[in-house]
Design a protein that fits this description.
The protein is 55% helix and 7% strand. The chain contains 10 helices and 2 strands.
Length: 177
């Protein structure tokens, strides 16, 4: 019996390996390794990836180094197999690219035109106080980005170790539901 790829299976796999384009070659490596090697985004622009990393790292420190941009970019190519939290919150896979592009373009404009710190930009985004924001509500994007960043940073055995929590792939409830 073939095991289906699920969000939990990918994130609990430790390295969360995927295929990334690095220097013209496709490599089967982790998102963090892809970022360190200078991956080439397939769906997002370089500017969108920079904004993604700045905002995600402000929401969840360590998201940039953990490979948030390569992870999201690779999942935007996955179609129905996408493991992005947006899928589970009602954003169909075929709309995820537009969801991220619109929000990241708005975030790029916000950071550039206002010369804001990432912390203040996140505060404005989380309160829906961004003028001319395009796409889904800014606060919803912030929520989605935080969840994706948490998955990338802490959704692995290494992440659990950083938190000092024993890793268990499955924890049964004490009483039957």
């Amino acid at each position: 019996m073939a095991l289906a790829t699920t969000r939990r299976r990918l994130l609990t796999g430790g390295a969360a390996l995927s295929w990334f384009l690095v220097n013209g070659s496709w490599l089967h490596i982790s998102a963090a390794q892809a970022r360190a090697a200078g991956f080439s985004p397939q769906k997002l622009t370089g500017e969108q990836c920079k904004t993604l990393e700045v905002l995600a790292d402000e929401l969840v420190p360590g998201a940039r180094a953990a490979g948030i941009a390569p992870f999201i970019d690779s999942q935007l190519t996955a179609g129905d197999a996408s493991l992005l939290i947006a899928k589970y919150l009602g954003v169909p896979p075929e709309q995820q690219l537009g969801f991220y592009q619109a929000a990241l373009d708005s975030g790029t404009r916000l950071l550039a035109t206002q010369d804001l710190s990432a912390a203040f930009a996140i505060e404005l985004i989380s309160k829906d106080e961004v003028l001319n924001w395009q796409g889904a509500p800014a606060s919803f994007f912030s929520f989605v980005l935080r969840a994706d960043a948490l998955d990338v940073v802490y959704g692995t055995e290494h992440g659990f170790e950083q938190l000092g929590i024993p890793y268990r792939a499955h924890i049964s409830p004490q009483e039957p539901w």
